[in-house]
Amino acid sequence: METPTLIKLGNGLSVPCVQELAKHTLAEIPSRYICTDENPLTVSVIDHETVPVIDLQNLLSLDPVIGKLELDKLHSACKEWGFFQLVNHGVDTLLVDSVKSEIEGFFNLPMDEKAKYGHKDGDEEGFGQHFVVSEDQKLDWADMFYMVTLPHHLRKPHLFPELPLPLRETMESYSSELNKLSMVLLEMMEKALQVAEAKGITKFFEDGFQQMRMNYYPPCPRPELVTGLTSHSDFGGLTILLQLNEVEGLQIKKDERWISVKPLPDAFIVNVGDVLE
């Protein structure tokens, strides 16, 4: 088998590009990717519970009864789950389809093209795996591309401004639309918490700090042995997740149990981050 392509990380470590690794017929999974957790997530996954679904158009309804019912659902979802699926979100379907297509196209670029967006020394932004701090650390079965998108002056000149067209234009529009959507959701959360007049939440997000992370999970011959993304909590305010296909993989932890998320068509999955919690 050919030597897998390595991606150099900002801290000096080099790790294999999983997408390139997965192109080969693997007799066995490399040991660094094998999850050694004594309680693997797949053992205790609950399938009969479903993440709450919030309809944005109902939230914004001029009918006070409809609006109040949906607002109560939002409050409960944030309080009890910290997650919900958002439908009728108002982001143009053609834009969302373009985002999916262009991201897929990026990951299908030749490796030498993607390597141009690799990490610089001392920086976590860019293409590759993240938070790898030692040669002994277990690796996720995924390739990632992470960058700050808002405010504009924080964009790294070798990343967003250098994205190939039309990906750059598509992501510019998507960034703007998600920023607007985030503020609407935060306003609704203020309303649910009865702090809307004081802008108790939105005032902390008015500068619009936004980061985007694109994750690619290649097929794996032994998926039960690997983890696509190590369990974690998101540190920010809101995470708005767009899944490019209907393959189930996301799991969330509620009441010490792991619950599989079945993504709805044309929906966003919203995660309330540590800052808001």
Automatic annotation (TrEMBL):
Annotated TM spans: none
GO terms of molecular function: metal ion binding; oxidoreductase activity
InterPro entries membership: DIOX_N, IPNS-like_FE2OG_OXY, IPNS-like_sf, Oxoglu/Fe-dep_dioxygenase_dom, Plant_2OG-oxidoreductases
PANTHER family named in the record: OXOGLUTARATE/IRON-DEPENDENT DIOXYGENASE
Name the UniProt record assigns to this protein: Fe2OG dioxygenase domain-containing protein
Iron recorded as keyword: yes
Pfam families named in the record: 2OG-FeII_Oxy, DIOX_N
Keywords: Iron, Metal-binding, Oxidoreductase
Domain (Fe2OG dioxygenase): residue spans on this chain: 208-277
Family: Belongs to the iron/ascorbate-dependent oxidoreductase family.
